[in-house]
Amino acid sequence: MTVLVSTLQHFVPDNMWIAVVVISLALVAIMFKYVLGTPGPSPFAIDRREPLKPMVLDRKLKNKVLKQGFLASKVPQDLDAIVVGSGIGGLAIAVLLAKVGKKVLVLEQHDRAGGCCHTFTEQGFEFDVGIHYIGELLDHKPLRCLIDQLTNGQLQWEPLDNPFDNVVLGPPENRRIYPIYSGKKRYIDELKKCFPGEEKAIDEYVRLSKKVANGVWFMVLLKLLPTPLAKFLVHTGLANRLSSFFRYASRSLTDVVNELTQNKDLRAVMCYIFGTYGKMPKEASFSMHSLLLCHYLNGAWYPKGGASEIAYHMIPIIEKAGGAVLVRAPVNRILLNDAKEAIGVSVLKGQEEVHVHAPIVISDAGIFNTYEHLLPKDVQTMPAIQKQLSMVQHGDGGLSIFIGVDGTKEELGLKADNYFIFPENNLDELLEGYMKGNREESSKNVPMIFVASPSAKDPTWPERKPGKSTVTVVSFANYAWFEEWKDDKVKNRSIDYKELKEAFISKILEAVTEIFPKIKDRIEYVDAGTPITNQHYIGAPKGEIYGADHGIPRFSVELNATIRPQTPIKNLFLTGQDVMLCGFAGALTGAVTCGSVILNRNLHLDAIGLAKRVKNGNNKKKE
Protein backbone atom coordinates (compact mmCIF):
# COMPACT_ATOMS: atom_id res chain seq x y z
CA MET A 1 0.00 0.00 0.00
CA THR A 2 2.88 2.40 0.79
CA VAL A 3 4.38 1.79 -2.65
CA LEU A 4 1.02 2.37 -4.33
CA VAL A 5 0.40 5.64 -2.48
CA SER A 6 3.89 7.02 -3.05
CA THR A 7 3.61 6.22 -6.75
CA LEU A 8 0.26 7.95 -7.08
CA GLN A 9 1.69 11.10 -5.47
CA HIS A 10 3.67 11.81 -8.62
CA PHE A 11 0.65 12.39 -10.82
CA VAL A 12 -2.45 12.97 -8.65
CA PRO A 13 -3.42 16.56 -7.65
CA ASP A 14 -3.66 17.30 -3.91
CA ASN A 15 -7.42 17.94 -4.03
CA MET A 16 -7.96 14.38 -5.24
CA TRP A 17 -5.75 12.77 -2.62
CA ILE A 18 -8.48 11.60 -0.23
CA ALA A 19 -10.38 9.99 -3.09
CA VAL A 20 -7.25 8.28 -4.33
CA VAL A 21 -6.49 6.84 -0.87
CA VAL A 22 -10.03 5.45 -0.63
CA ILE A 23 -9.79 3.95 -4.14
CA SER A 24 -6.36 2.50 -3.38
CA LEU A 25 -7.62 0.85 -0.22
CA ALA A 26 -10.47 -0.68 -2.21
CA LEU A 27 -8.04 -1.90 -4.88
CA VAL A 28 -5.81 -3.52 -2.28
CA ALA A 29 -8.83 -5.27 -0.75
CA ILE A 30 -9.84 -6.60 -4.16
CA MET A 31 -6.28 -7.71 -4.93
CA PHE A 32 -6.10 -9.64 -1.66
CA LYS A 33 -9.41 -11.31 -2.45
CA TYR A 34 -8.57 -12.36 -5.99
CA VAL A 35 -4.82 -12.84 -5.83
CA LEU A 36 -4.20 -13.94 -2.27
CA GLY A 37 -7.56 -15.54 -1.64
CA THR A 38 -7.75 -19.35 -1.52
CA PRO A 39 -11.37 -20.51 -1.95
CA GLY A 40 -10.72 -23.47 -4.28
CA PRO A 41 -8.89 -26.79 -3.81
CA SER A 42 -5.11 -26.80 -4.19
CA PRO A 43 -3.00 -29.40 -6.04
CA PHE A 44 -0.12 -28.24 -3.81
CA ALA A 45 -1.82 -28.87 -0.48
CA ILE A 46 0.72 -31.56 0.40
CA ASP A 47 4.01 -32.84 -0.97
CA ARG A 48 3.08 -35.67 -3.32
CA ARG A 49 6.54 -36.87 -4.23
CA GLU A 50 6.88 -40.63 -4.09
CA PRO A 51 9.97 -42.80 -3.52
CA LEU A 52 12.03 -42.88 -6.70
CA LYS A 53 11.20 -45.85 -8.90
CA PRO A 54 13.68 -47.56 -11.27
CA MET A 55 13.87 -45.82 -14.63
CA VAL A 56 12.16 -47.53 -17.54
CA LEU A 57 14.67 -47.57 -20.37
CA ASP A 58 12.75 -49.90 -22.69
CA ARG A 59 11.27 -47.74 -25.44
CA LYS A 60 8.44 -50.19 -26.16
CA LEU A 61 7.26 -50.05 -22.55
CA LYS A 62 7.37 -46.25 -22.57
CA ASN A 63 5.41 -46.12 -25.82
CA LYS A 64 2.54 -47.97 -24.14
CA VAL A 65 2.10 -44.80 -22.11
CA LEU A 66 3.06 -42.20 -24.70
CA LYS A 67 1.32 -43.63 -27.78
CA GLN A 68 -2.21 -44.52 -26.73
CA GLY A 69 -4.25 -44.03 -29.88
CA PHE A 70 -7.65 -42.37 -29.89
CA LEU A 71 -10.80 -44.49 -30.00
CA ALA A 72 -14.25 -43.33 -28.97
CA SER A 73 -14.39 -46.32 -26.62
CA LYS A 74 -11.30 -45.04 -24.77
CA VAL A 75 -12.87 -41.70 -23.89
CA PRO A 76 -13.69 -41.62 -20.14
CA GLN A 77 -17.26 -40.89 -19.14
CA ASP A 78 -18.35 -37.77 -17.22
CA LEU A 79 -15.31 -35.68 -18.06
CA ASP A 80 -14.57 -32.53 -16.09
CA ALA A 81 -12.34 -31.01 -18.77
CA ILE A 82 -10.84 -31.56 -22.22
CA VAL A 83 -7.35 -30.32 -23.09
CA VAL A 84 -6.40 -29.81 -26.74
CA GLY A 85 -2.68 -30.50 -27.17
CA SER A 86 -0.21 -32.49 -25.06
CA GLY A 87 2.67 -30.04 -24.88
CA ILE A 88 3.94 -29.20 -21.42
CA GLY A 89 1.27 -26.50 -21.06
CA GLY A 90 -1.48 -29.01 -21.81
CA LEU A 91 -0.13 -31.86 -19.72
CA ALA A 92 0.61 -29.55 -16.79
CA ILE A 93 -2.91 -28.12 -16.56
CA ALA A 94 -4.31 -31.65 -16.87
CA VAL A 95 -2.14 -32.86 -13.98
CA LEU A 96 -3.03 -29.84 -11.84
CA LEU A 97 -6.72 -30.58 -12.31
CA ALA A 98 -6.21 -34.31 -11.81
CA LYS A 99 -4.55 -33.65 -8.47
CA VAL A 100 -7.76 -32.08 -7.17
CA GLY A 101 -9.87 -34.99 -8.42
CA LYS A 102 -10.83 -33.77 -11.89
CA LYS A 103 -11.25 -36.24 -14.76
CA VAL A 104 -9.40 -34.78 -17.75
CA LEU A 105 -8.99 -35.95 -21.35
CA VAL A 106 -5.92 -34.71 -23.24
CA LEU A 107 -6.10 -34.99 -27.04
CA GLU A 108 -2.95 -34.90 -29.20
CA GLN A 109 -2.92 -34.78 -33.03
CA HIS A 110 0.59 -36.32 -33.31
CA ASP A 111 1.24 -40.05 -32.84
CA ARG A 112 2.91 -39.53 -29.44
CA ALA A 113 2.32 -37.30 -26.45
CA GLY A 114 4.62 -34.49 -25.35
CA GLY A 115 4.47 -31.70 -27.94
CA CYS A 116 7.93 -30.13 -28.03
CA CYS A 117 8.93 -32.53 -25.22
CA HIS A 118 8.59 -35.59 -27.45
CA THR A 119 11.44 -37.62 -28.93
CA PHE A 120 11.71 -39.60 -32.16
CA THR A 121 14.02 -42.33 -33.42
CA GLU A 122 15.65 -42.62 -36.84
CA GLN A 123 18.14 -45.34 -37.84
CA GLY A 124 18.71 -46.23 -34.20
CA PHE A 125 19.33 -42.66 -33.04
CA GLU A 126 16.96 -40.96 -30.58
CA PHE A 127 16.48 -37.21 -30.91
CA ASP A 128 14.86 -34.61 -28.66
CA VAL A 129 13.00 -31.92 -30.56
CA GLY A 130 12.56 -29.10 -28.05
CA ILE A 131 14.20 -29.66 -24.68
CA HIS A 132 17.86 -28.62 -24.69
CA TYR A 133 18.46 -27.31 -21.18
CA ILE A 134 16.42 -25.92 -18.28
CA GLY A 135 17.48 -23.53 -15.52
CA GLU A 136 16.33 -22.83 -11.95
CA LEU A 137 16.27 -26.50 -10.90
CA LEU A 138 18.19 -26.32 -7.65
CA ASP A 139 16.49 -28.27 -4.89
CA HIS A 140 13.59 -26.42 -3.27
CA LYS A 141 13.43 -23.71 -5.95
CA PRO A 142 9.78 -23.06 -6.92
CA LEU A 143 10.24 -24.35 -10.49
CA ARG A 144 11.89 -27.54 -9.24
CA CYS A 145 9.14 -28.02 -6.66
CA LEU A 146 6.48 -27.48 -9.33
CA ILE A 147 8.00 -30.08 -11.67
CA ASP A 148 8.48 -32.53 -8.80
CA GLN A 149 4.78 -32.24 -7.93
CA LEU A 150 3.68 -32.59 -11.57
CA THR A 151 5.66 -35.85 -11.88
CA ASN A 152 5.30 -37.13 -8.28
CA GLY A 153 9.05 -36.73 -7.91
CA GLN A 154 9.89 -39.25 -10.64
CA LEU A 155 11.52 -36.95 -13.20
CA GLN A 156 15.26 -36.78 -12.59
CA TRP A 157 17.62 -34.04 -13.77
CA GLU A 158 21.30 -34.06 -14.65
CA PRO A 159 23.33 -30.83 -14.36
CA LEU A 160 25.24 -29.67 -17.41
CA ASP A 161 28.97 -29.03 -17.34
CA ASN A 162 30.32 -25.69 -16.18
CA PRO A 163 30.70 -23.69 -18.41
CA PHE A 164 27.29 -24.73 -19.71
CA ASP A 165 27.28 -22.37 -22.72
CA ASN A 166 30.04 -21.29 -25.07
CA VAL A 167 29.72 -18.24 -27.31
CA VAL A 168 31.68 -18.51 -30.55
CA LEU A 169 32.32 -15.31 -32.53
CA GLY A 170 34.12 -14.86 -35.81
CA PRO A 171 35.48 -17.00 -38.67
CA PRO A 172 37.96 -19.84 -38.06
CA GLU A 173 40.97 -17.61 -38.67
CA ASN A 174 39.81 -15.10 -36.04
CA ARG A 175 37.63 -17.16 -33.74
CA ARG A 176 36.91 -16.08 -30.17
CA ILE A 177 35.23 -18.48 -27.74
CA TYR A 178 33.75 -17.06 -24.55
CA PRO A 179 32.69 -19.59 -21.87
CA ILE A 180 29.53 -18.84 -19.87
CA TYR A 181 29.64 -20.18 -16.32
CA SER A 182 26.81 -20.78 -13.88
CA GLY A 183 26.89 -19.52 -10.33
CA LYS A 184 25.85 -15.96 -9.55
CA LYS A 185 29.37 -14.91 -8.57
CA ARG A 186 31.27 -17.11 -10.98
CA TYR A 187 29.23 -15.94 -13.98
CA ILE A 188 30.37 -12.39 -13.29
CA ASP A 189 33.96 -13.25 -12.36
CA GLU A 190 34.59 -15.35 -15.46
CA LEU A 191 33.04 -12.74 -17.74
CA LYS A 192 35.33 -10.11 -16.25
CA LYS A 193 38.35 -12.34 -16.96
CA CYS A 194 37.33 -12.40 -20.62
CA PHE A 195 36.77 -8.64 -20.78
CA PRO A 196 39.28 -6.79 -18.56
CA GLY A 197 38.39 -3.14 -18.20
CA GLU A 198 34.67 -3.84 -18.62
CA GLU A 199 33.97 -4.66 -14.99
CA LYS A 200 31.55 -1.76 -14.49
CA ALA A 201 29.52 -2.66 -17.58
CA ILE A 202 29.27 -6.31 -16.55
CA ASP A 203 28.20 -5.47 -13.00
CA GLU A 204 25.55 -3.07 -14.25
CA TYR A 205 24.27 -5.57 -16.82
CA VAL A 206 23.74 -8.23 -14.16
CA ARG A 207 22.30 -5.76 -11.62
CA LEU A 208 19.84 -4.37 -14.12
CA SER A 209 18.84 -7.83 -15.36
CA LYS A 210 18.07 -9.00 -11.84
CA LYS A 211 16.09 -5.87 -11.06
CA VAL A 212 13.97 -6.16 -14.20
CA ALA A 213 13.44 -9.93 -13.94
CA ASN A 214 12.27 -9.58 -10.34
CA GLY A 215 9.33 -7.52 -11.57
CA VAL A 216 7.83 -10.27 -13.72
CA TRP A 217 5.38 -11.17 -10.94
CA PHE A 218 3.30 -8.23 -12.12
CA MET A 219 2.64 -10.03 -15.41
CA VAL A 220 1.03 -12.85 -13.46
CA LEU A 221 -0.91 -10.30 -11.42
CA LEU A 222 -2.42 -8.70 -14.53
CA LYS A 223 -3.67 -12.09 -15.70
CA LEU A 224 -5.21 -13.06 -12.36
CA LEU A 225 -6.93 -9.83 -11.41
CA PRO A 226 -10.50 -9.15 -12.56
CA THR A 227 -10.36 -7.57 -16.02
CA PRO A 228 -11.70 -4.15 -14.91
CA LEU A 229 -9.03 -3.87 -12.23
CA ALA A 230 -6.29 -5.02 -14.61
CA LYS A 231 -7.40 -2.42 -17.15
CA PHE A 232 -7.41 0.24 -14.43
CA LEU A 233 -3.77 -0.56 -13.63
CA VAL A 234 -2.93 -0.37 -17.33
CA HIS A 235 -4.76 2.85 -18.24
CA THR A 236 -3.65 4.80 -15.17
CA GLY A 237 -0.02 3.90 -15.84
CA LEU A 238 0.25 2.15 -12.49
CA ALA A 239 1.30 -1.16 -14.07
CA ASN A 240 4.36 0.45 -15.66
CA ARG A 241 5.20 2.43 -12.55
CA LEU A 242 4.90 -0.48 -10.14
CA SER A 243 6.77 -3.07 -12.20
CA SER A 244 10.42 -2.85 -13.23
CA PHE A 245 9.67 -5.59 -15.75
CA PHE A 246 7.12 -3.47 -17.61
CA ARG A 247 9.16 -0.27 -17.27
CA TYR A 248 11.92 -1.86 -19.34
CA ALA A 249 9.68 -3.96 -21.59
CA SER A 250 9.60 -1.38 -24.38
CA ARG A 251 13.38 -1.03 -24.46
CA SER A 252 15.26 -3.21 -26.90
CA LEU A 253 18.09 -5.45 -25.82
CA THR A 254 20.37 -3.69 -28.29
CA ASP A 255 19.63 -0.25 -26.85
CA VAL A 256 20.26 -1.29 -23.26
CA VAL A 257 23.45 -3.20 -23.99
CA ASN A 258 24.88 -0.51 -26.26
CA GLU A 259 24.52 2.01 -23.42
CA LEU A 260 26.58 -0.23 -21.15
CA THR A 261 29.64 -0.87 -23.31
CA GLN A 262 31.36 0.00 -26.58
CA ASN A 263 33.05 -3.43 -26.75
CA LYS A 264 31.36 -5.22 -29.64
CA ASP A 265 32.32 -8.72 -28.51
CA LEU A 266 30.97 -8.03 -25.02
CA ARG A 267 27.76 -6.68 -26.53
CA ALA A 268 27.38 -9.92 -28.48
CA VAL A 269 28.10 -12.05 -25.39
CA MET A 270 25.52 -10.11 -23.39
CA CYS A 271 22.99 -10.78 -26.15
CA TYR A 272 23.91 -14.31 -27.24
CA ILE A 273 21.02 -16.16 -25.57
CA PHE A 274 18.36 -14.35 -27.64
CA GLY A 275 18.00 -17.55 -29.66
CA THR A 276 16.19 -19.17 -26.74
CA TYR A 277 13.21 -16.90 -27.33
CA GLY A 278 13.65 -16.16 -31.01
CA LYS A 279 14.12 -12.41 -31.56
CA MET A 280 17.18 -10.56 -32.81
CA PRO A 281 18.55 -8.14 -30.16
CA LYS A 282 17.19 -4.95 -31.70
CA GLU A 283 13.67 -6.42 -31.75
CA ALA A 284 13.93 -8.17 -28.39
CA SER A 285 12.59 -6.76 -25.15
CA PHE A 286 15.27 -6.31 -22.53
CA SER A 287 12.73 -7.54 -19.99
CA MET A 288 12.37 -10.89 -21.74
CA HIS A 289 16.12 -11.20 -22.04
CA SER A 290 16.63 -10.45 -18.34
CA LEU A 291 14.48 -13.48 -17.48
CA LEU A 292 16.72 -15.79 -19.50
CA LEU A 293 19.92 -14.46 -17.97
CA CYS A 294 18.57 -14.95 -14.46
CA HIS A 295 17.03 -18.32 -15.35
CA TYR A 296 20.47 -19.85 -15.92
CA LEU A 297 22.53 -18.02 -13.28
CA ASN A 298 22.28 -20.96 -10.88
CA GLY A 299 23.00 -23.59 -13.53
CA ALA A 300 21.44 -25.66 -16.28
CA TRP A 301 19.97 -29.17 -16.31
CA TYR A 302 18.79 -31.87 -18.71
CA PRO A 303 16.22 -34.63 -18.05
CA LYS A 304 17.73 -38.04 -17.37
CA GLY A 305 16.46 -40.47 -19.97
CA GLY A 306 15.66 -37.70 -22.45
CA ALA A 307 12.75 -35.33 -22.94
CA SER A 308 10.13 -38.08 -23.30
CA GLU A 309 10.54 -38.74 -19.57
CA ILE A 310 8.55 -35.58 -18.91
CA ALA A 311 5.28 -36.74 -20.48
CA TYR A 312 5.93 -40.34 -19.40
CA HIS A 313 5.77 -39.38 -15.71
CA MET A 314 2.83 -36.98 -16.05
CA ILE A 315 0.37 -39.16 -17.94
CA PRO A 316 -0.12 -41.77 -15.15
CA ILE A 317 -1.23 -38.99 -12.76
CA ILE A 318 -3.93 -37.94 -15.23
CA GLU A 319 -4.99 -41.56 -15.67
CA LYS A 320 -5.10 -42.24 -11.93
CA ALA A 321 -7.78 -39.55 -11.58
CA GLY A 322 -9.87 -41.26 -14.29
CA GLY A 323 -8.61 -39.24 -17.24
CA ALA A 324 -6.67 -40.20 -20.36
CA VAL A 325 -4.09 -38.90 -22.83
CA LEU A 326 -4.91 -40.06 -26.36
CA VAL A 327 -2.87 -39.46 -29.52
CA ARG A 328 -3.71 -39.47 -33.21
CA ALA A 329 -6.67 -37.36 -32.11
CA PRO A 330 -6.79 -34.25 -34.31
CA VAL A 331 -9.34 -31.80 -32.93
CA ASN A 332 -10.94 -30.03 -35.89
CA ARG A 333 -13.29 -27.73 -33.97
CA ILE A 334 -14.50 -26.69 -30.55
CA LEU A 335 -18.17 -27.43 -29.97
CA LEU A 336 -20.39 -24.55 -28.85
CA ASN A 337 -23.99 -24.45 -27.71
CA ASP A 338 -26.57 -21.90 -28.85
CA ALA A 339 -25.30 -19.46 -26.23
CA LYS A 340 -21.81 -19.64 -27.79
CA GLU A 341 -20.39 -21.47 -24.79
CA ALA A 342 -17.77 -24.23 -25.16
CA ILE A 343 -19.25 -27.66 -24.45
CA GLY A 344 -16.67 -30.02 -25.98
CA VAL A 345 -14.63 -30.78 -29.09
CA SER A 346 -14.89 -32.66 -32.35
CA VAL A 347 -12.16 -35.21 -33.14
CA LEU A 348 -11.54 -36.39 -36.69
CA LYS A 349 -11.38 -40.18 -36.88
CA GLY A 350 -10.78 -40.91 -40.52
CA GLN A 351 -13.53 -39.05 -42.37
CA GLU A 352 -15.89 -39.06 -39.41
CA GLU A 353 -16.26 -36.70 -36.48
CA VAL A 354 -16.38 -37.97 -32.92
CA HIS A 355 -17.92 -35.49 -30.49
CA VAL A 356 -16.57 -35.42 -26.95
CA HIS A 357 -18.27 -33.28 -24.32
CA ALA A 358 -17.05 -31.62 -21.15
CA PRO A 359 -17.99 -28.49 -19.18
CA ILE A 360 -14.51 -27.01 -19.66
CA VAL A 361 -12.30 -26.92 -22.78
CA ILE A 362 -8.66 -25.85 -22.45
CA SER A 363 -6.51 -25.21 -25.50
CA ASP A 364 -2.76 -25.76 -25.58
CA ALA A 365 -2.84 -25.42 -29.37
CA GLY A 366 -1.79 -21.77 -29.29
CA ILE A 367 -3.79 -18.59 -29.71
CA PHE A 368 -3.75 -18.65 -33.53
CA ASN A 369 -4.87 -22.26 -33.89
CA THR A 370 -7.52 -21.84 -31.21
CA TYR A 371 -9.11 -18.66 -32.52
CA GLU A 372 -8.53 -19.01 -36.27
CA HIS A 373 -8.99 -22.75 -36.84
CA LEU A 374 -10.97 -24.31 -33.98
CA LEU A 375 -13.80 -21.78 -33.66
CA PRO A 376 -16.67 -21.23 -36.12
CA LYS A 377 -16.21 -18.36 -38.58
CA ASP A 378 -18.95 -16.25 -37.02
CA VAL A 379 -17.35 -16.57 -33.60
CA GLN A 380 -13.87 -15.75 -34.93
CA THR A 381 -15.16 -12.31 -35.95
CA MET A 382 -16.14 -11.36 -32.39
CA PRO A 383 -14.51 -7.99 -31.57
CA ALA A 384 -12.93 -9.35 -28.38
CA ILE A 385 -11.27 -12.20 -30.30
CA GLN A 386 -10.14 -9.94 -33.12
CA LYS A 387 -8.65 -7.54 -30.59
CA GLN A 388 -6.52 -10.28 -29.08
CA LEU A 389 -5.38 -11.51 -32.49
CA SER A 390 -4.45 -7.95 -33.51
CA MET A 391 -2.07 -7.76 -30.55
CA VAL A 392 0.08 -10.75 -31.53
CA GLN A 393 1.92 -12.05 -34.56
CA HIS A 394 3.52 -15.33 -35.51
CA GLY A 395 7.02 -16.04 -34.26
CA ASP A 396 9.86 -16.88 -36.63
CA GLY A 397 10.05 -20.41 -37.96
CA GLY A 398 12.39 -22.93 -36.39
CA LEU A 399 15.06 -24.89 -38.25
CA SER A 400 16.57 -28.02 -36.69
CA ILE A 401 19.33 -30.37 -37.85
CA PHE A 402 19.49 -33.87 -36.36
CA ILE A 403 22.85 -35.65 -36.57
CA GLY A 404 23.54 -39.27 -35.64
CA VAL A 405 27.20 -40.16 -35.10
CA ASP A 406 29.09 -43.42 -34.63
CA GLY A 407 31.15 -43.22 -31.44
CA THR A 408 30.95 -42.37 -27.75
CA LYS A 409 31.05 -38.84 -26.38
CA GLU A 410 34.61 -39.43 -25.21
CA GLU A 411 35.73 -40.55 -28.65
CA LEU A 412 34.01 -37.64 -30.36
CA GLY A 413 34.89 -34.87 -27.92
CA LEU A 414 31.25 -34.16 -27.03
CA LYS A 415 30.36 -32.69 -23.65
CA ALA A 416 27.27 -31.77 -21.65
CA ASP A 417 27.27 -28.17 -22.82
CA ASN A 418 26.02 -25.92 -25.61
CA TYR A 419 27.60 -23.77 -28.31
CA PHE A 420 26.13 -20.60 -29.80
CA ILE A 421 28.00 -19.96 -33.04
CA PHE A 422 27.95 -16.57 -34.80
CA PRO A 423 30.01 -15.56 -37.91
CA GLU A 424 30.79 -12.21 -36.24
CA ASN A 425 29.71 -9.88 -33.44
CA ASN A 426 27.29 -7.69 -35.46
CA LEU A 427 24.32 -9.86 -34.53
CA ASP A 428 21.47 -7.57 -35.61
CA GLU A 429 22.94 -6.93 -39.03
CA LEU A 430 23.59 -10.63 -39.63
CA LEU A 431 20.12 -11.76 -38.49
CA GLU A 432 18.24 -9.06 -40.38
CA GLY A 433 20.04 -9.77 -43.63
CA TYR A 434 19.42 -13.48 -43.26
CA MET A 435 15.70 -13.31 -42.50
CA LYS A 436 15.02 -10.76 -45.24
CA GLY A 437 17.16 -12.49 -47.87
CA ASN A 438 16.06 -14.95 -50.51
CA ARG A 439 16.20 -18.60 -49.53
CA GLU A 440 19.07 -19.60 -51.79
CA GLU A 441 21.36 -16.86 -50.51
CA SER A 442 20.30 -17.21 -46.88
CA SER A 443 20.94 -20.96 -46.92
CA LYS A 444 24.62 -20.12 -47.43
CA ASN A 445 24.79 -17.58 -44.60
CA VAL A 446 23.11 -18.93 -41.47
CA PRO A 447 24.01 -16.31 -38.83
CA MET A 448 23.15 -18.14 -35.60
CA ILE A 449 23.61 -21.81 -34.78
CA PHE A 450 22.87 -23.48 -31.45
CA VAL A 451 24.73 -26.81 -31.16
CA ALA A 452 24.45 -29.40 -28.40
CA SER A 453 24.76 -33.13 -27.86
CA PRO A 454 21.68 -34.54 -26.10
CA SER A 455 23.39 -37.91 -25.78
CA ALA A 456 26.34 -36.35 -23.93
CA LYS A 457 23.96 -34.70 -21.45
CA ASP A 458 22.04 -37.88 -20.60
CA PRO A 459 23.80 -40.33 -18.24
CA THR A 460 21.42 -43.14 -19.30
CA TRP A 461 22.42 -42.84 -22.96
CA PRO A 462 25.42 -45.25 -22.94
CA GLU A 463 23.15 -48.00 -21.62
CA ARG A 464 20.32 -47.22 -24.03
CA LYS A 465 22.38 -46.52 -27.17
CA PRO A 466 25.92 -47.86 -26.63
CA GLY A 467 28.58 -46.67 -29.06
CA LYS A 468 26.34 -43.99 -30.61
CA SER A 469 25.97 -40.24 -30.13
CA THR A 470 23.69 -37.46 -31.30
CA VAL A 471 24.19 -33.78 -32.08
CA THR A 472 21.31 -31.35 -32.46
CA VAL A 473 21.44 -27.96 -34.17
CA VAL A 474 18.78 -25.26 -33.83
CA SER A 475 18.42 -22.06 -35.82
CA PHE A 476 15.68 -20.03 -37.48
CA ALA A 477 14.26 -19.87 -40.99
CA ASN A 478 11.64 -17.86 -42.81
CA TYR A 479 8.41 -19.84 -43.18
CA ALA A 480 7.88 -18.28 -46.63
CA TRP A 481 11.03 -20.02 -47.91
CA PHE A 482 9.32 -23.41 -47.50
CA GLU A 483 5.61 -22.57 -47.69
CA GLU A 484 5.08 -23.75 -51.27
CA TRP A 485 5.71 -27.35 -50.17
CA LYS A 486 3.52 -27.36 -47.05
CA ASP A 487 0.81 -29.52 -48.67
CA ASP A 488 3.22 -32.16 -50.04
CA LYS A 489 3.35 -35.55 -48.35
CA VAL A 490 5.64 -35.23 -45.34
CA LYS A 491 8.00 -38.05 -46.27
CA ASN A 492 7.80 -37.40 -49.99
CA ARG A 493 8.18 -33.69 -50.63
CA SER A 494 9.53 -32.41 -53.94
CA ILE A 495 13.14 -32.52 -55.10
CA ASP A 496 13.39 -28.73 -54.85
CA TYR A 497 12.44 -28.88 -51.18
CA LYS A 498 15.01 -31.58 -50.50
CA GLU A 499 17.69 -29.59 -52.32
CA LEU A 500 16.95 -26.50 -50.24
CA LYS A 501 17.12 -28.57 -47.05
CA GLU A 502 20.42 -30.01 -48.21
CA ALA A 503 21.82 -26.52 -48.82
CA PHE A 504 21.06 -25.55 -45.22
CA ILE A 505 22.40 -28.84 -43.88
CA SER A 506 25.63 -28.56 -45.83
CA LYS A 507 26.44 -25.04 -44.68
CA ILE A 508 25.50 -25.72 -41.07
CA LEU A 509 27.56 -28.92 -40.97
CA GLU A 510 30.61 -26.91 -42.04
CA ALA A 511 30.28 -24.74 -38.96
CA VAL A 512 29.51 -27.66 -36.64
CA THR A 513 32.43 -29.81 -37.75
CA GLU A 514 34.83 -26.90 -37.31
CA ILE A 515 33.91 -26.92 -33.61
CA PHE A 516 33.60 -30.72 -33.38
CA PRO A 517 36.10 -32.04 -35.98
CA LYS A 518 36.02 -35.62 -34.67
CA ILE A 519 32.41 -36.15 -35.81
CA LYS A 520 33.08 -35.18 -39.43
CA ASP A 521 33.89 -38.63 -40.82
CA ARG A 522 31.62 -40.56 -38.47
CA ILE A 523 28.21 -39.12 -39.30
CA GLU A 524 25.73 -41.91 -40.05
CA TYR A 525 22.50 -39.95 -40.17
CA VAL A 526 21.54 -36.35 -40.81
CA ASP A 527 18.25 -34.65 -41.61
CA ALA A 528 16.60 -31.28 -41.14
CA GLY A 529 13.31 -30.18 -39.68
CA THR A 530 12.05 -27.00 -41.37
CA PRO A 531 9.18 -24.64 -40.47
CA ILE A 532 6.76 -26.84 -42.43
CA THR A 533 8.04 -29.88 -40.52
CA ASN A 534 7.08 -28.07 -37.31
CA GLN A 535 3.74 -27.18 -38.85
CA HIS A 536 2.99 -30.85 -39.46
CA TYR A 537 4.30 -32.50 -36.28
CA ILE A 538 3.65 -29.93 -33.55
CA GLY A 539 0.84 -27.96 -35.21
CA ALA A 540 2.80 -24.68 -35.37
CA PRO A 541 0.83 -22.48 -37.83
CA LYS A 542 3.94 -20.85 -39.35
CA GLY A 543 6.53 -23.30 -38.13
CA GLU A 544 7.29 -21.26 -35.01
CA ILE A 545 8.77 -23.05 -32.01
CA TYR A 546 8.08 -20.36 -29.40
CA GLY A 547 4.42 -19.68 -30.11
CA ALA A 548 3.32 -16.07 -30.62
CA ASP A 549 6.15 -13.67 -31.38
CA HIS A 550 8.28 -12.57 -28.41
CA GLY A 551 9.26 -9.15 -29.72
CA ILE A 552 8.78 -5.90 -27.84
CA PRO A 553 5.00 -5.60 -28.51
CA ARG A 554 4.44 -8.92 -26.72
CA PHE A 555 5.36 -7.26 -23.42
CA SER A 556 3.02 -4.30 -23.41
CA VAL A 557 0.90 -4.02 -20.27
CA GLU A 558 -2.28 -3.81 -22.35
CA LEU A 559 -1.57 -7.10 -24.14
CA ASN A 560 -0.76 -8.88 -20.89
CA ALA A 561 -3.92 -7.63 -19.24
CA THR A 562 -5.99 -8.65 -22.28
CA ILE A 563 -4.60 -12.07 -23.27
CA ARG A 564 -5.20 -14.28 -20.26
CA PRO A 565 -6.40 -17.84 -19.62
CA GLN A 566 -10.06 -16.80 -19.93
CA THR A 567 -11.16 -16.33 -23.53
CA PRO A 568 -14.16 -14.36 -24.82
CA ILE A 569 -15.90 -17.76 -25.12
CA LYS A 570 -17.35 -18.96 -21.85
CA ASN A 571 -15.83 -22.24 -20.60
CA LEU A 572 -12.93 -22.01 -23.09
CA PHE A 573 -9.47 -21.37 -21.65
CA LEU A 574 -5.92 -20.99 -22.96
CA THR A 575 -2.81 -22.59 -21.46
CA GLY A 576 0.88 -22.81 -22.34
CA GLN A 577 3.34 -20.45 -24.02
CA ASP A 578 0.86 -17.96 -25.43
CA VAL A 579 -0.65 -17.27 -22.01
CA MET A 580 2.65 -16.28 -20.40
CA LEU A 581 6.08 -16.81 -21.98
CA CYS A 582 7.88 -19.18 -24.32
CA GLY A 583 9.90 -22.24 -23.47
CA PHE A 584 9.43 -25.04 -20.96
CA ALA A 585 9.31 -22.81 -17.87
CA GLY A 586 7.15 -20.22 -19.63
CA ALA A 587 4.59 -22.80 -20.75
CA LEU A 588 4.50 -24.28 -17.25
CA THR A 589 3.83 -20.83 -15.82
CA GLY A 590 1.01 -20.46 -18.34
CA ALA A 591 -0.49 -23.73 -17.10
CA VAL A 592 -0.28 -22.68 -13.46
CA THR A 593 -1.92 -19.36 -14.33
CA CYS A 594 -4.67 -21.21 -16.19
CA GLY A 595 -5.17 -23.54 -13.24
CA SER A 596 -5.38 -20.57 -10.89
CA VAL A 597 -8.26 -19.13 -12.92
CA ILE A 598 -10.16 -22.41 -13.26
CA LEU A 599 -9.75 -23.41 -9.60
CA ASN A 600 -10.24 -19.84 -8.38
CA ARG A 601 -7.06 -20.06 -6.34
CA ASN A 602 -3.57 -18.56 -6.69
CA LEU A 603 -1.59 -21.69 -7.49
CA HIS A 604 1.62 -19.68 -7.93
CA LEU A 605 1.57 -18.77 -4.25
CA ASP A 606 0.58 -22.33 -3.36
CA ALA A 607 3.59 -23.75 -5.23
CA ILE A 608 5.94 -21.23 -3.61
CA GLY A 609 4.47 -22.04 -0.21
CA LEU A 610 4.94 -25.77 -0.70
CA ALA A 611 8.54 -25.22 -1.83
CA LYS A 612 9.21 -23.36 1.41
CA ARG A 613 7.54 -26.04 3.51
CA VAL A 614 9.49 -28.81 1.80
CA LYS A 615 12.74 -26.90 2.28
CA ASN A 616 11.96 -26.48 5.96
CA GLY A 617 10.93 -30.12 6.36
CA ASN A 618 7.26 -29.31 7.01
CA ASN A 619 5.14 -31.23 4.52
CA LYS A 620 1.86 -31.09 6.39
CA LYS A 621 -1.30 -30.48 4.41
CA LYS A 622 -2.19 -26.85 3.96
CA GLU A 623 -5.58 -25.89 2.53
UniProtKB/TrEMBL annotation:
InterPro entries: Amino_oxidase (IPR002937), FAD/NAD-bd_sf (IPR036188), Retinol_saturase (IPR052206). It is found in: Endoplasmic reticulum membrane. One of its GO terms (cellular component) is endoplasmic reticulum membrane. The chain crosses the membrane at residues 16-36, 79-98. It comes from the Eukaryota. Belongs to the carotenoid/retinoid oxidoreductase family. CrtISO subfamily. This is All-trans-retinol 13,14-reductase. The lineage of its organism: Eukaryota, Metazoa, Chordata, Craniata, Vertebrata.
